Amino acid sequence: MSVKLIDNEAFYGFRVRRTVNGKLYQEYFSLKKAGKRLGSRQTRAVERIAEARDEELRLEQEKSRQRRKAELCFHPDGSVKGISYLIKTEKSGTRTPIFQVGIASELDKRIICTSFSINAHGADLAWSKAIDTYARHKKISRGTKLYKKLAVSMPVVKEAPRTVKSAAANKRRATSKPSAGRPTGTSRKKTVSKRKARIAAE
What we know:
Layout: E1 3-7, E2 12-20, E3 23-30, E4 32-33, E5 36-37, H1 40-73, E6 83-89, E7 95-104, E8 111-117, H2 118-121, H3 123-138, H4 145-151, H5 164-175, H6 185-201
């Protein structure tokens, strides 16, 4: 609550002060009438008016934060800021597609960096887990429009080769072709056999 009692020579009463969308609202509610201080019952009535005004500003403040939060969650191309689709290469050479979350947590006041394997969970579940983590640390409620927009913003997932070696082998197989006019291993064996048979017959 941003209601404060001010009691000095210049003013006696309540002050409400909040910043909404970059604009400072500072309003005063006097506890004097005709130069005299109000009684306890009237003071309480003025306090309730000040509190009601503070609540109005608080709601506007929250709406403004949510609007700005939505803008801060997405890149211009619609992808989610702080969640990346990566192919992680393990020490064994295995290539694992993941969704990696790297954000400043509003919940723990620290940097959060965690990932979810697409091989282990499947793309949809891995993305759902990434969004749940993102929303929890950004204090985004599940029922909000922003959460729903995040949930349907999964990037295109491409199938990754299982290992670095297999990827290189696949590439070699795809590009290698028998040389023109040069017999393959099987045809060379047949040719040698025919020559031996012809020599024996002579």
